[in-house]
Amino acid sequence: MKAKLLLLLLCQTSLSWAQNNNQAFDWAYNTKAGINTVKQIKYDPQGNLFVLGSASTKGKWGTTDIPCNPSSGRFPGTGEYLGKISQSGTQTFIKSFNNPAAALTCDLMDIDAQGNIFILGTAKATTNAVANFGNGVTLTANGYFLLKLNASGEAQWAKTFNMGLTNWSAFTTASGFKILPSGEMFLSLFCPNTPYKYWLLKTNAAGEEIWHRESITSASSYKCASSGEWVDDAGNSLIVKYTTDKKVTLGSDSIIAPATQGAYLYIFAINTAGKTIWQNSFSNANIVDYAVNPKSSEVTMIFAQTGNNIKPFDSLVYTGLPFPSFFKGLVKTTITGNRINYKSFSVKDSFRIGDPEIIIGLPNGSTAMYSGLINAADAFIKGQYITLDNSKDQDLFIEINSNLEAKYLIALQKGSYSYSLNMASFQNKIAVSGDLSLPKDTLTTINKTILAAGSNEPSFATDFPTFANYRADVYLTQWDRSLQAGSTNTIKENNLDVSANLFPNPFTDILNLESTKNIQEVCVINLAGKTVWKNKFNAKQISLDLETLEPGIYILCFKSEIGSVSKKIIKY
């Protein structure tokens, strides 16, 4: 199966609008809290979506009030939580992480093959206050903590990593956390107090250290892929640093910056034994975000540079950008730094391509990426204009194949683009979270569901007027890639006047199809996106002999004389 990527504003193909393709969406919610953040979303092996977030006073998860610390004067209280959404869209509140005395902050999350949930965060117990996670699991130390929960949210154990430091007066968010299929874990940690120590840490499944690589660096950390896709299944990791430092170190390895430029990009690739397999530095360049394919170890990155650099970023040709000698686009490399492919963004001045830009992994070991934002009236893609709503900014998603060619686009109509975005995938399902701005996004419609931005309680604006229009409500939605318009093997349902009847469904060998319009073509697609059956017709009633198909779930797509329809079918 060809690798897939999710990308905003990429050239080289014709795109199909799909914001009205409601069949592709499974559900949509917003948390309706006045100040809210989703920190990370992850699917478990059964396809349940877990959400690690924080909410303010009077916020809810489903019908459950999110426990918050007490409010203080004009400031609402906040509370960190773990929630779950099933494939059918049922919301379940899992756990609260409120420990005010221990000053807990949950940063990142991952889920192992058994469905256990791991939370990486920081604890600042300056008065030896005890952080109590329930089920007899506690901790008192300062520094980073790693917490294991079972699938029901019950605490199993908690570990701390203070990196040999005692000064934890300031904290920063952990930059990376990844669990391998073996259960081994990789952590990227940084303490923003002198001497500014960084650790790349590997542990076993019990959270016990196997090795760590240390760097004494400037007041900034190494960066990992924002989606968590920075380590492959074999344990090869890639970390990057964008800084004005002219020299950086990691363990016994060091890199000196080229020439005398003002800003530098440093890259380290480390194997599972903690040994460097590729390192280099680049001038006037930056990796906005990246992902390491867990199966092939290929690295796909959103890369930008002014001028030229050494391999693998030499000879990158910009296309249509407003500044000469400036490249921004996709670059695909091996994990040891050999370039495989690249594509430049081709855009007009009216575009805004910026953070956050998130890369995720799609099924079957393929690489995937979501990227960017738009704040423009027009989209210019390969010489073709696509008109957007002039009055609204949007969150946009495009999938592209292994050749970096765009396949489809999702546009979530909002009053503004999201500053805080997350993404996850499970089989053909893709979930995203973004923020809703107040009052711009007062009404946002996803999947015919009207999301009213704002606090669940009208009294929030009265009690906390400073935050009445705060950009902080959050939406979450899930769609099915196999039903998405514009995908290589998928037909868009673009005419509601076309109705069809399939029977029996589920079926064994013969499936009957009736339509109000003449059926011209029928194809059957499996959940991997491959067309497994196809035929042409010219009738309103047909019988399909699908005896050769293996039992399972498929998507049946048919074209009529005025439109197209996609339906899910099940063969016994």
What is the domain tally? 2
The end-to-end span amounts to: 25 Å
Question: What structural class do you assign from the helix and strand content?
Answer: mainly beta
Return residue spans where pLDDT drops below 50 for at least 5 consecutive residues.
1-22, 347-356, 364-368, 371-391, 485-498
Write the CATH homologous superfamily of the largest domain.
YVTN repeat-like/Quinoprotein amine dehydrogenase
Number of DSSP helical runs: 1
Task: State the total count of DSSP E strands.
Answer: 43
CATH level-3 fold name of the largest domain: Methylamine Dehydrogenase, Chain H
If you average the pLDDT, what whole number results?
76
Assign the CATH architecture of the largest domain.
7 Propeller
The first-level CATH class of the largest domain is given as Mainly Beta
Molecular shape: globular
Quick recap of the structure?
The chain has 572 residues and is mainly β. The chain folds into 2 domains: 4-483, Methylamine Dehydrogenase, Chain H, CATH 2.130.10.10; 500-571, Sandwich (Immunoglobulin-like), CATH 2.60.40.3080. A hairpin with a 6-residue loop joins strand 39 and strand 40 (510-526).
